């Protein structure tokens, strides 16, 4: 979505004219590569090129856009040492823990069916 604004609670976003916080979060986190960037920064802070490498060589323009959005959303901060998650970003990862647990159960269930 070139030229799209960073979703913010209280402002209309894709799928919601009300700007409910959960809808703004779903819009932001549903953008291509966003959760991958968050996940990689949760693993370890990184500079732009290192983060691009860890994200399977995503295009530099998409990475720059995602980092700008995540920075504007206060999930990521960048400085001379690179990019890292903020306290709010770490809270996001903690909120995703149930999804991580579910994905492991899903994997086991799929493997059972394949056996």
What would you note in describing this structure?
This is DNA-binding HxlR family transcriptional regulator. The structure is a single chain. It contains six helices and two strands. The protein is mostly helical. It has one domain (31-114): Arc Repressor Mutant, subunit A (Orthogonal Bundle). It has a two-stranded antiparallel ribbon with strand order 1-2. The longest helix is centred in the last third of the chain and has 18 residues, at 97-114. It is globular and about 45 Å long.
Fill in the keyword field for this structure.
115 residues, Arc Repressor Mutant, subunit A, 6 helices, transcription regulation, DNA-binding
**Alpha carbon gyration radius:** 16 Å
Topology, number of strands: 2
- Protein structure class: mainly alpha
| End-to-end gap | 41 Å
Taking strands numbered 1, 2, ... along the chain, how are they ordered across the largest sheet?
A: 1-2
CATH superfamily: Winged helix-like DNA-binding domain superfamily/Winged helix DNA-binding domain
What is the CATH first-level class name? Mainly Alpha
Helicity level, as a percent range? 55-70%
Unreliable stretches covering 5 or more consecutive residues:
none
Number of domains: 1
- CATH domain topology: Arc Repressor Mutant, subunit A
